[in-house]
Amino acid sequence: MSQGTLQRVRFGMIGGGSGSAIGGVHRMALALDGRGELVAGALSSTPERARESAREIGLSAERSYDSWQELIAGESVREADDRVEAVSVVTPNHSHFEIARACLDVGFHVVLDKPMVCDSSEASRLAEAVASSGVSLTVTYNYSGYPLVREARHLVASGAIGAVRKVFVEYHQGWLANDLESSGHKQASWRTDPAQSGGAGALGDIGTHAEHLTRFVTGQAPSELCADVRTYVAGRRVDDDASVFLRYASGASGVLTCSQVCIGAENGLTLRVFGDAGSIAWQQESPEQLVFHDANGKRTVMTRGGDGLSRDAADATRTPPGHPEGFIEAFANIYRGAIERVRGIDSSLSRFAPTVEDGAVGVRFVEKCLSSNGSWVSLSD
Amino acid sequence: MSQGTLQRVRFGMIGGGSGSAIGGVHRMALALDGRGELVAGALSSTPERARESAREIGLSAERSYDSWQELIAGESVREADDRVEAVSVVTPNHSHFEIARACLDVGFHVVLDKPMVCDSSEASRLAEAVASSGVSLTVTYNYSGYPLVREARHLVASGAIGAVRKVFVEYHQGWLANDLESSGHKQASWRTDPAQSGGAGALGDIGTHAEHLTRFVTGQAPSELCADVRTYVAGRRVDDDASVFLRYASGASGVLTCSQVCIGAENGLTLRVFGDAGSIAWQQESPEQLVFHDANGKRTVMTRGGDGLSRDAADATRTPPGHPEGFIEAFANIYRGAIERVRGIDSSLSRFAPTVEDGAVGVRFVEKCLSSNGSWVSLSD
Amino acid sequence: MSQGTLQRVRFGMIGGGSGSAIGGVHRMALALDGRGELVAGALSSTPERARESAREIGLSAERSYDSWQELIAGESVREADDRVEAVSVVTPNHSHFEIARACLDVGFHVVLDKPMVCDSSEASRLAEAVASSGVSLTVTYNYSGYPLVREARHLVASGAIGAVRKVFVEYHQGWLANDLESSGHKQASWRTDPAQSGGAGALGDIGTHAEHLTRFVTGQAPSELCADVRTYVAGRRVDDDASVFLRYASGASGVLTCSQVCIGAENGLTLRVFGDAGSIAWQQESPEQLVFHDANGKRTVMTRGGDGLSRDAADATRTPPGHPEGFIEAFANIYRGAIERVRGIDSSLSRFAPTVEDGAVGVRFVEKCLSSNGSWVSLSD
Amino acid sequence: MSQGTLQRVRFGMIGGGSGSAIGGVHRMALALDGRGELVAGALSSTPERARESAREIGLSAERSYDSWQELIAGESVREADDRVEAVSVVTPNHSHFEIARACLDVGFHVVLDKPMVCDSSEASRLAEAVASSGVSLTVTYNYSGYPLVREARHLVASGAIGAVRKVFVEYHQGWLANDLESSGHKQASWRTDPAQSGGAGALGDIGTHAEHLTRFVTGQAPSELCADVRTYVAGRRVDDDASVFLRYASGASGVLTCSQVCIGAENGLTLRVFGDAGSIAWQQESPEQLVFHDANGKRTVMTRGGDGLSRDAADATRTPPGHPEGFIEAFANIYRGAIERVRGIDSSLSRFAPTVEDGAVGVRFVEKCLSSNGSWVSLSD
User: Fold this and answer.
1) What residues of chain C lie within 8 A of the CB of D257, using their CB?
2) Same domain, residue pair A204 and A91
C-alpha cells in the first residue's frame, strides 16, 4: 500500500445551506473519513444565503456560486486536478432530475438524495444519462449503510435463514401528526408540497427508504403490491400514512407500513425477515444490535464490530463493539462507497452504494402505491 | 363487608385432561384467587384418560365423568348448593357449540375458549341460547385481562390519545414454521385440522385474539377489511399466516398481522394505537410496561401496580410494581370476571369479561378474512 | 402413575390477614397448582380481624383461630388425616422464631418468610428444632423459584461459564425514599421498626434475598465481606441502603448493593455472574430472559420454556415461552418444593426449596454487614 | 454572524499511526464538524511508519515528521497563520506528560487522552505548565460529550432529582478476560504494561472515565474511597478489576466498579444517580435515551434531540431524535469544545470540555484506589 499520498475526492454541493436539515448530514458524512473534501458549493437558490452559508462552513468565496448552473459552469473550466469531481445534490426532490443530469453531462459524479426523482419517466432518462456519462450516480439510501444491515444482507444471502417467507418493514414518524406545514416549518413545508416533494408525502420521504432497505437485505423486489394510502391531517396535500401488502415471485409476502402521524415515533424504521430456517430483526433506532433466530428458535444478539461478523459488515465499521456508531457513520458509508466508485475501487462499500437503478425502483414503488387504491397492482408493468 | 363467609363458585371442566395445553391454565386461573373451585370434570373424551386425569388433579372419583353428557346429567341432579354452577369448556373448537349450549340449557354458566364457535350461524344460535338461559357465558380472550391492557383501554376511553387514527396489532408465533402436525404433536394436530379447529388456522387461533385485544382497547370494531391469507407450510390444510388491513367507520385504519411461521417469535402479541393527541404501545411478552406518548411526543413508561393508574387497572392487579404478573394472572382476571358474573357482582372485572357477543364478532372476523381473497369486504353484511 | 387420587397437603396460616402484603401471595402460591389447600388460620393477632379475614377468604369459622397458639393447640387435637400438615408463618420477623419452633414441636412442617429469624442464636436453635422434629422447614427465598434462575444455577454448576470470578448483585427499591413510616403505612411501619423487623432494614428485607439468590446460582458463599451501611431518611431507625464487597475462598469477588431509597426502582433485583469462560445475567423484573455469553462473548438470550433448557428449569415451568410467568409462579415453585418435602418426594423442586440452613446463612450475612462498619469481617467466625 | 469565512483550527497529531485504535477516532472527531483540520503529524515513533501513516491519511509529506520533537520544532518556525495551533497527543500514557509540556511551552494548545499523566506529581507540573502557557489543555473524557450526559448534568444541577444520595457507576469490558497481551495484541500489550500504561490497568483505562462521568454529572467529587482492586488474569502486571466505595462530603455515597474481565461486556459504562426527589439513569451503549424518575417514581424516557431538552444538550446535538448519534459524535463534542477554547469562544461546549484540573483529579483517583488495599483513604490528603 506504499503508493502515493491519499488524494481526497473533491466535492461540490448544491443545496444544503442554512436551515437545511440534510445538507449538514451530507457534509459530516463526507468529512468523517477524510477521503473527500468539499471545495465548492451553490448552497442556496438565494445568492446571498448561498454566500453566507459558504462563509459559515469555511468554503472559499471564490468557489461559492450563486446558482447550481454557475457552479457547473465555473467548476467545469477549472483545471482537471482542481475542479470538483463529484457533486452532492441535496435540494428538494423536484429539482433532482435537472441538476443531476446537468452534472452528469459535464462528467461530474453525482450523489443524490432520495426519492431520486419525481416519476419513472425522469428515472429512465436519468439512468440513460448515467449510462452515457461515464461517471457514477449514487443515491443516499443511507440506512443500507449501517454495518448490521450489511450483516443482515449477508446472512440472508448466505442462506442463514433459508428461503424468505415473510417480511415486515415499517418506518414510522410522528413529526407530521399535526399541520406543521401551516406554521411555516421549512422541512414540513416543502415535504408536504406536491410541487416540491415530487407528489408523494410519507411514501416518498420514508416509504422509499423502507422499500430499499427490504430489497437490499432480502435481495428480492416485490412483483405485486396492494396499498392503503391515507392523509390524516386535514388540508394536507400529500399522503402521510400508507400500508402496503407485498407479494414476491418467490412466494414470499410482506407488509410495509410508513406513517408520519405516529405520535411518539421518531425514526422508527424496523425490518424483520422470516425464512423457513431462521429469522433476523433490526431496528434503526438501536442499530448496534441484530437479532438472529436459528431454525430452532435460538436467539443470538449480534453486536456491531464483533468477531464473528462478515467482511461486508467489517468494511462498514469504524469503532469497536460497544462504542456506538449511528446515523452519520451509516451515511458516511454510502459516501465512502460513492468515493470509491469515483476512484474506481471495487469493494463492498462501492458495490453496495445504491445506484440509479435502485433509485428508479424506489420511484416506481411510490408511483404504484399511489395508484393502487387498495387493489393489487403489478410492479412489472 | 362483614357478611357471611365467602362461598366459592363450583366449577366443572369439560376437556383439559392429560396432554391438554390449556386445561391446566384454566385450572390455575380458577384456583389463583380462591374464589372458585373445581368440583367436577369430564376431562377427556376417553373415559379411562378422564378418570386418570381426575385422579392426578385430586378430583373425586364420584364427580369425574366419562363424557360431557354424563357430567351435565350427573351434576344436574345434585342438590342446588352442591352441583356445579359453571362449566369451563376447553375442548377443541368444533365441539364448543354443542357443549356450551347443553350447559346453558340446564342453567350452568359457561366459560369458553376462543374461537368461540366455528361459524356465525353457531355464534348466533349460541347468543340466543345465552339470552334465553338466564346464565352467563364468558369467552376467554385472556389477553384483555392484563392490567395494563385495562389501563390502555382506560387511556383511550378517557381521551388521553385523542381520536384514534391508526392501529397496528400483530400476533406472531413460530412454532408451526414446520410441518409439526405430521409428527403427531397433539396441539399442532388438532389446531391444523379444519374439522377440529373450526376451519381457520392462525386466524382462529391467534388472529382472533389480536382482533379482540384491539377492539377492547380502542372501543371500535372495523367496518371493512382486506386480508392476504396464506399457508406457508406445504400440505397444511389451514392458514398459517394472514395480513389484514382494517378500516373503521371513524376514519381510523389499521393493520393486523398474525402468523405461526415467524421463527423465533413466541407469543408476540403487540398493540400500538396512535391517536391525534397521543399514542400507546403494549407488548404481551413484556406485559408489565405500557408506553404512553403525549401530544408532544413525551414518553412515559407506566408500570403495572403504580400509583397513577386507573381503577380498572388496579382492580386487575395482585402484586406491587416490579413483582411481575403474567399470563396466568391475566387469565385469572377473566375468571374473576366470570365468577363475579355468576355471583351477580357488578365490577370492572365482570363488565370487561368477554361475552358471547365478543365471541361472535371474533368468529365473523375470521370468516371475513378467509373470504376476502385480497379484496375489501364489509364486516357489516 | 395410576395410584390413588392426589391428596392435597393441608396448610394452616399464621398471619396474613387483611392489610397484609405477603399473606395473599402465600395463599396464591399455595393454591396455584392445586397441590395444597388452606384449611386453617390464625390470620391476625387481633381476634376480630382474624375472624373477618377468614370469612373473606372462605376459611371455615371453625378453623379460624384467634391466636397462633390456639391454632397449634386446636389443630393438634384433630384427626391425623384432617389436621394441618404444614403451617405458613407470615408474621413480622420478630415472631418467626417462636411460632416456627412451636409448630415444629408438634410436628407441623413450616413454611417461613425471610429473614428467617432475628439473629444467629435463634437460627441455630431453629436448626436444632428442625433436626429433632422429623419435619421440614422451608424459607421462602422466592426469587430462587424463577425457572431461569434455576437455569442460571444449572449453567454455572455445569461449567458453562467456567470458574466464577466476579459477581454483581443488586436489589434496589425506591418505596422508602421518604419517611413513609411516619404516615402509618403498615408495611413501612413494621419493616422500619427494629423491634419487629429483627434489627435490620433494607439488609434484612431485600439484601438477604440478594445474598441467597447469588449463593443459589453460584453455589458459593462468601468468606469475607466489607459493608458500607447507611440510613438516608432522617429519623429512620434501621438501614435503608447498603453496599457490600464480597470475597470468596475460591478467589472470586463480588459487589452486593441493596437500597430502599432508589427512587424509580421497584423490585430491581439483578444478578450478573462472570466466569473465566462466560457469563450470565438475569433481572427479576424481566424474569423470562436469561442472557448468556460464551467464552467468545457470543450473546444468547434464553427464554423460559424453550427447548434447550435444563430439566431443573423445566420442572419449574408452567406455560410455554412467550406466555409470561412471574412472581407468583416463582413463589409457587417454592411452595411446590415445600409440598413435595412434606410428601417425601425427591425432585429438583424439593431439593432447591431453601432450608433452615439457608435461612441461617442469610441471618448471619445481615449480622455481619451490620457489624462491618466499612471494614472487612470474616463470615466464618 | 456575517463576519469573515470560518477559519479552521490547524491541528497536529502526535501518535495515532497505523494500528492505533484511538488515532482514527481523534481524526474523525476533529473532522466531523469541519471546524478543525489536521495539517501536521508525527504519527509514529518509528519514522518509516510515521511517513506511511501520513500518506495513508493524506497528510503532506512536508509536514509529516519523524518524531514529536521534530514536529514541535518544525511547526514552530512556520508562519503564524500556517503553523499548527493545537496538537492532539494520542501516544501511550507514559509519554503524555513530556509531550504535552513541550507543546505548551511553545504555545500550542493541547488535546490529550486520558489518563492524563502517570502520577499526581506530573499532573501538578502539567497544571502549572498550562497556567503559565497562555494556551489551553483539554483531556478527552469523551463520554461527557454525549448530549444526554449533558442533559443529565443539567437535570442534577437544576435540582430535578433533589440532593444526590446515591451513585452507581460501572464500566465493564470483557476483552481482557484472557491473557490477550501474550499474543502480541498491540492494544492489550501497552495497556497492561505498567511502564507504558502509567501503572494502572483497568482503573486508568476505564475507571477514570467512570470517575469523570460521575463527577461531571453530579458536580461532586468524593472525599473518601475504599477500593478492592484485583488482577484476575494470571501473570498480568496491572489491575484488571476494581470495586470502589465512594463517600462524599455532602453525605452522598456511591459504588464504582470497573473491570476488563467481564466476558460479554463491551463498553458497559452505566451511570445511575439517585437523589431525594428523583433519579436518572444512562447507559453509554444506548446513549440516545436518558431515563428520569420524578419524586413519585414516574418514569420518563427522554430521547436526544427532543424538544424539551436543555440548551446544553442541544448545543451538543447534530441530528434529530431517532437518527442515532454515537461515540464519534460525543468525541467530536469534546473536540468542538477544544476548538472553541482555541478560538476563545465561551459556550457550553468550551466550558464543559475537560481541563487539566479534571485530568489531575482522575490521576489522583487512580492513585488512591491503588493504595487503598480495601481500606478507606481520604482523597483530600
Assistant:
1) 168, 255
2) no
